[in-house]
Design goal:
The protein is of the alpha/beta class and 232 residues long. 36% of the residues lie in helices and 30% in strands. The longest helix has 23 residues. This is adenosylhomocysteine nucleosidase.
């Protein structure tokens, strides 16, 4: 079973339209739509914004639906000058950038007493998603790399430069690392897919509304093409 998480309703609404929905299950104030997408058994759900909402949602997918693959789709701010608005970034790993226990000697982003600094994506899923997106969205570029997540909308050049310096990440958003963290603890496959909606700098509040819809279209097109190719 494949679980597909989007943070906002706009990010999952188009997927739901393409589904054959068999049941809707309510849990933790969330609505989980189970059915078929592109011929595969899936559960599509809007998690809500932020790391706690995302982690709760991911754990329910594991416990209630027995998913063995989680795809997190949505939008993000670019942290690499070469990555344009509309491009797709596929995670190789994810870090919670607002975790800071550096007082105790840990690097920023390291969760104390965890055996890993970053939460890896499934390498086969990363490769597959890249190949599929290059066919599904040939008009944009596809990138792979680290994604960082935190409970803040990054909209200042100063914060952007800090994230680049600390994490060498491709983009920043608010849920992916929490979902990757949950998948890591449950030993299941996960990948984060992000369409770039803004440059995560002083222009972000202007760029985001203008480009959100186009970014979501790219994500949805990729997910619909990716799901039937997953061999699980």
């Amino acid at each position: 079973m494949i679980g597909i998480i989007g943070a906002m309703e706009d990010e999952v609404a188009e997927l739901k339209k393409s589904m054959e929905i068999e049941e809707v299950v309510s849990a933790a104030s969330l609505s989980f739509c189970r059915g078929k997408l592109s011929g595969k058994e899936v559960v599509v759900v809007r998690s809500g914004i932020g790391k706690v909402n995302a982690a709760v949602c991911a754990q329910i997918l594991v416990d209630r639906f027995g998913v063995d693959v989680i795809i997190n789709t949505g939008i993000a701010g670019s942290l690499d000058a070469a990555i344009d608005i509309g491009d797709i970034v596929i995670s190789t790993d994810a870090v919670e950038h607002d975790m800071d226990a550096s007082t105790f000697g840990d690097p920023v982003g390291q969760i104390p007493q965890m055996d890993t600094f970053s939460f890896p994506a499934d390498e086969k899923l990363v490769k597959l998603a890249k190949e599929v997106n290059e066919k599904a969205n040939p008009d944009i570029r596809t990138w792979t790399g680290r994604i960082v997540s935190g409970d803040q909308f990054v909209s200042s050049s100063e914060k952007k430069e800090q994230l680049i310096s600390l994490f060498d990440a491709k983009c920043t958003e608010m849920e992916g690392a929490a979902i990757a963290h949950t998948a890591y603890l449950n030993k299941i496959s996960c990948v984060i897919i992000r369409a770039i909606s803004d440059k995560a700098d002083n222009s972000a509040s202007v760029d985001y509304p203008a480009f959100e819809a186009a970014a979501i279209r790219h994500s949805v097109r990729l997910i619909e093409a990716l799901v039937p190719e997953i061999k699980k």
